[in-house]
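FAQ: What does the model actually see?

It sees only this:
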Amino acid sequence: MTSTAAAPGRGSHARSSSTRRTAALAVLLAVVFTAVAWLRLDGTTRGTGWADDRQFVQDGVEQGLWSSLFDPYAGYLHVVPRLVTQVVLWVAPFPDVVIGITLASCVVAGLVGALVFVCSGSVVDHLAARLVLAAITVLVPAAPIEVAGNAANLHWYFLWLAPWLLMAAPTRWLSGFALGVVALLAGLTEIQVAMFVPLVLVDARSRYRLPVVAGLLLGVAAQVVATVTSPRTEPYGRPPDLHDLVQAYPVHVVVPAWLPKFHGIRATAFDTWPMVVLACVPFVLIAGALVATTIVRLRRGRPSARRDLVVVAFCLVGAVVPFVIGYWLNHVAQPGTVTLHRLGKQAPLRYGLVSTMFLLATAVVGADRLPTRLPCRRLVVPALVVAVAVLCLAHFDVGRTYRSHGPAFKPGYERASASCRAGASFGAIYFAPKSHFWLLRLDCEDFRRVEGG
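And it is asked to produce this:
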């Protein structure tokens, strides 16, 4: 009787200790990942405002948080970017708003990476594999070129996080509700998380997952309402066809995993179709092996086979669908024919970054899912995990970004402030890429207010 009663106590204590260790490691990873995201950006990039962030700053100054938080922009909600921007407007002097947004965006990316580590524990066994999956968040090779360090592109990180959230296995209501809040924010920030909604059926009987499921579904529902009531403007040009997509996918998703360059693949060794195909071969082999082993497990009736199938499915969906949707909806092909020569001049597109993340994740998950009886498993698993880590670390510094040549925000602010003091009615500050479309234009009364605040 005594030993029977003691066992549950020891088990509960062990689970509590494990939870504390995981939480402590997650906090450490969040700090490290934030630093990594920050250090991958050069000084000019950190201090230069990026494109759509201009809209969030303008709305934050003119309307405040509650009047603009749920305003659709470009056809959907951007709750986290607006929150980040408003918090920075509250705590930072206005001349330092952009560098504050850069830092806050790096913090969000670091937190997302830590959450990937925590949530992936329910589907990935090896600690090293989980660490590399989490590190992909901030080390994915092409991130600094356009996506990292700005509020406008934070939605990609939540798209990357969504399936890991839905596959998480919280063991208490507290953790369930905490992840539920994150899931709600993910849904309210990125409409494309809807592609992972089928994952709500995984472990449907787990009551602690209910807040996560409810949060994501509520966020997606709000996005649908926003899209229907405020549809995005139809972009210029023609939508790409299947031929365009087949050519663009390896150039903007696969090659940037190997060698991301601002000047496109023409600045790399992958400037011919044979070399582009060669870049795809390792990932195709890994994905094929992962699918094959999963099918074998299903046929043998292995207990974990169905869950394996779900993990494989969301990795492959994530590796393809986000790029296809982004490339197609934004008519990136433009008039004319898509050729390797034209594609080769383009920097890696932001639509391809999250697909690259899932592509790298497929290699990590593939290593983790190798059959335990495979003789070379002990060598292959660490080899693949280390290969992905080395591939990411090799491109810590990617060189030029879209913001590495300015225009820096602080000098622009000083010029705008001087114009207001000279009697102008408004002040204007350029964001990158420099054009009148990305011009922050504030009434001088607003300038005086933010300067005084």
